[in-house]
Amino acid sequence: MITLNKTIRLFLDSIGRRDEYEFYLTKFHAAHAACFALLCPDLESVETGAEVLAFDLHFLMRLELVPAILLCGADSERMQRALAKEPIFSFQSLETGAGAAEFIRQSKETEKVPVLVAESELSETLLELLPDVAKRIHFIRAAGGLKNADGEPLSYINTHRENFQPLEKLELDFPALGKMLIDACPGVHVSVTSPINLLQEIFTVKGSGTVFRKGSVINHFQGMENVDRQRLVELMEASFGRKLAAVSALDAACDFFIEQEYRGAVLLEPHPAGLYLSKFAVGKEARGEGVGVELWREVCRAHDCFFWRSNINNPFNQWYDKQADGRHAAGKWQIFWRGVKAESISDIIEYCCTRDEDFIS
Predict the structure, then answer these.
(1) Mean pLDDT value across residues 303-309
(2) Structural element, H or E, at residue 184
(3) Where are the domains of the chain?
(4) Average pLDDT over residues 268-281
(5) How many angstroms separate the Cα of 6 from the Cα of each of 10, 11, 57, 103, 304?
(6) Is residue 264 within 8 Å of residue 286, measured between CB atoms?
(7) Which of 9, 15, 70, 231 is most buried (most C-beta within 10 Å)?
(8) Radius of gyration (Cα) for the chain, nearest Å?
(9) CATH of the domain spanning 6-213
(10) Between β-strands 333-338 and 326-330, what pairing exists: parallel, antiparallel or unpaired?
């Protein structure tokens, strides 16, 4: 990873957590493509936010992350005129795919942000450019990420595993476009955000926009027989940032819900009052993709009675509170439950308070 001077570090600290942006910087610098990402703005975001966009892109260049802007369709010439007012941009008319990588390389040498201009449709041009030119696509619209019909923001949309909920009226069918790109280029990252939130979308787990993804395959195991113990341990320790006190503790679980690629897992143990949710681990990269919500949904479909504890400083406690029927604060623990009978609540509180730590401090 590049060395970050104090000014850059302070700015990144204002965007998000240090461990998160360092994780993404390392990931992005390890990627192999002509540019870090293709940014596809709409007309309004260019005409009203060109200065904001230029600032963000200048900052990315200082981080040695070279983005490229793609302007397509009937508004491409108008958007080019708006961007031309900012000296950071250099332009090239694009015969689909021809010379794009070389132009990006030349722009990088002159410390300019390359802008590719094409009269063809956006979807057609993107299919020609992926994955050699870029493996990340950020659609930029003045309105930001997508919202449902009630105006509530959507952090992600699973394009393949569930019916889309009714969306706001869109100028472009982003879900269909996202699905097409994911099908054509597996592993590509596709999201929608606004000019002002671009850096937060790029460098934080939570993001600030809408990510398109296929949706996870969640496997349900009853016992360790078909579980890859080593991968599960690696996930647990990476997710919590600490070593397990005893790997053998995993054997106490009776139910395992594990994302197919071991990017997330939930473990439950038997208890007279129901099931104790002993581990809920999601890999850092998967946290911004809805994997945790998918795991939680599968657990709730399979079990209507379980309980768990969480450190009082856990930032997810507010989310847990919304999922629980009740909670109780005891020392350093918040104890939550779903479906637990009233007469068993004191027992589960005592169990959570006296249970040993699962990870080494």
Answers:
(1) 96
(2) helix 174-184
(3) 6-213, 218-354
(4) 95
(5) 6, 9, 19, 32, 50
(6) yes
(7) 70
(8) 23
(9) 3.40.1160.10
(10) antiparallel
